[in-house]
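Hey team,

Filing this mostly as a record. A colleague (T.K.) asked me to run one chain through the structure pipeline before their review meeting, and I want the input and output archived in the tracker in case anyone asks later how it was produced. No errors, nothing strange. Just documentation.

Input sequence:
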Amino acid sequence: MADQLRMAGMKNINQGKKILIINPFGIGDVIFTTPIIESIKLEYPESYIGYLCNIRTAPILFSNPNVDKVFIVERDEYRQLWQVSKIKCIRRMLNLLNEVKKERFDIALDFSMARDYGFFSMLAGIKKRIGYNYKNRGLFLTDKITLEGGYHDKHVIDYHKEFLPLLGMGLSADTQTKIYISEEDDKKAQQILWDQGIALTDKYICIMPGAGASWGRTAYRRRWPIERFAEVALRLAVEFKLKIVLLGSADEKELCDYIKKEVPGAVNLCGKLSLMVSIAVIKYANVLLTNDGGPLHMAVGVGTKTVSIFGPVNERVYGPYPASEKYCIIKDKSLSCVPCYNSFKLPECSDLKCLNNITVDEAIKALEGIR
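Output structure:
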């Protein structure tokens, strides 16, 4: 009874609170926090939500009607500016701090696992600071959630849900990842498809052979061989008479150009669209074929069926959420060394068997069952 009264009291207190969510990571990581946003707004409709993120992920939050204000922090820019002028760098940091401080947030939900963001929140005058105490980095947090060895035994979103009781909410809140697309971006996507000879009633498959930018120079460790993506695309086009749309960032253009060369009829939009228009194109597709990473979660966020290739990463932790038959995962279950990505570390590997062992026929079979 005491717990019920405490929860009810917290609900009354939090109803009109201003909450700042902090997540400086990649696209998939930000999408993993969308169920938290949905849950807060469902439980506390009058709450005001701010979000501190990097510039790559900002468009997803700008289009989310449940996010009231977005703050952008680019750590690489700060580092570069520090080398050029320490005074200018400090000024820029203070400008961001003052911008956040003016909003007078009551609560910070810090998903960064970094000590400096807790310190930033404290300087911004945010009294209640909830976050992960990973490697004892929660020095400046008021409410700490222990995270031993990173995410490992359940999905990331299930870890994030542990923040909710500290807001007076239960764990049964909405857990569906969700991406909102503006009417403008939706219309742009429809026009682009039409210009390429694709109507919304046509069946087409999106292929994203990259894995997003989060892993930087080691991103290749998440990528199925490009030759196999190309072979799948060719078979889908020739044997199944399906239209193929290639998507990705400008940094992944070389991958899509390779597929386009092997499959001349494919529509190559890689590097040509904004993030949100790309997501809108995915929304109208019958299925997305991709690797583990941000592109996969973009599709899940708009409810598009997926076939995803998983190598070193644990799909139970970083896979589609919630798990569903419409989100098909292909992995080599025979290897004892996978998943090898643990505690945010990736060991050296010379053969990449976890990816190289997956065949084109496996991908075709999965696509046949889901398209």
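Quick notes for T.K.: The longest helix spans residues 86-102. The chain is about 40% helix and 15% strand.
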